[in-house]
Design brief:
The protein is of the alpha/beta class. The chain is built from six helices and eleven strands. The strands form three sheets. The chain has a five-stranded parallel β-sheet. A four-stranded mixed β-sheet has the order 7-4-5-8. A two-stranded antiparallel sheet has the order 9-10. The radius of gyration is 20 Å and the shape is globular. InterPro entries: FTHF_cligase-like_sf, LUD_dom, NagB/RpiA_transferase-like. This is Lactate utilization protein C.
Length: 201
């Protein structure tokens, strides 16, 4: 017999009312954190290692011409973009009520807040996405991020994000990949099949 919603809620409420003493988080020694002579070059190397591609552009509008050289983009039917200055949407995100309708999305063009040189990741603030699933459900993903928005390591990344706040955000690095099934590498199993990063000067 399944527990009722009220009994489940009662258990959760009791758990939430209990205070748990936890040790304080350690204060990292800033002098021992990894630093790079050229963090942007390191970012490009890190992203390439995980299968992403970096394109240096002067203005977001140049992104479309570069993407048009990629057959998967030039033949795409459903493109969503939160940056019309870079790529125009063929999907009206304002009219999407049910995220399930985005299941056939070919491309998503997102805005990145900053890059992390250490691992080639980009922080995407969920407040820029009409639906959080956009970043995961599209077959291909492009992110536009300013060149001067970069940190050396994850410690600096979390400092830049600051105190946790309601909402959603995600670090994105390279295409989705897994080798859990028969140790065979599969791209796009849990997200995009390819990541294109456009870095604006």
């Amino acid at each position: 017999m399944k527990p009722s919603t009220s009994s489940r809620r009662g258990v959760l409420d009791r758990l939430n009312s209990q205070s748990v003493d936890v040790p304080p988080l350690p204060d990292p020694d800033a002098s021992k954190l990894i630093q790079f002579d050229d963090p942007f070059e390191r970012f490009k190397e890190s992203l390439a290692l995980v299968g992403g591609e970096v394109h240096e552009i002067e203005h977001p509008s140049q992104a479309t011409s570069i993407l048009n050289r990629i057959e998967a983009f030039s033949s795409a039917q459903r493109v969503a973009s939160v940056l019309p200055a870079a790529v125009k949407s063929t999907v009206d995100l304002a009219m999407v009520d049910d995220p399930h309708s985005l299941a056939s999305l070919d491309w998503m063009v997102a805005s990145g807040e900053f890059m992390i040189a250490e691992n080639g990741a980009i922080w995407v603030d969920g407040s820029t996405l009409p639906h959080r699933v956009l970043i995961f459900i599209a077959q291909f993903l492009a992110i536009v991020v300013p060149r001067d928005a970069i940190v050396h390591n994850m410690h600096e990344a979390y400092d830049r994000i600051g105190a946790p706040k309601p909402g959603f955000g995600v670090f994105v690095s390279g295409p989705s990949k897994t080798a859990d099934i028969e140790q065979s590498l599969v791209l796009g199993a849990h997200g995009c099949r390819k990541l294109q990063v456009f870095v604006t000067s």
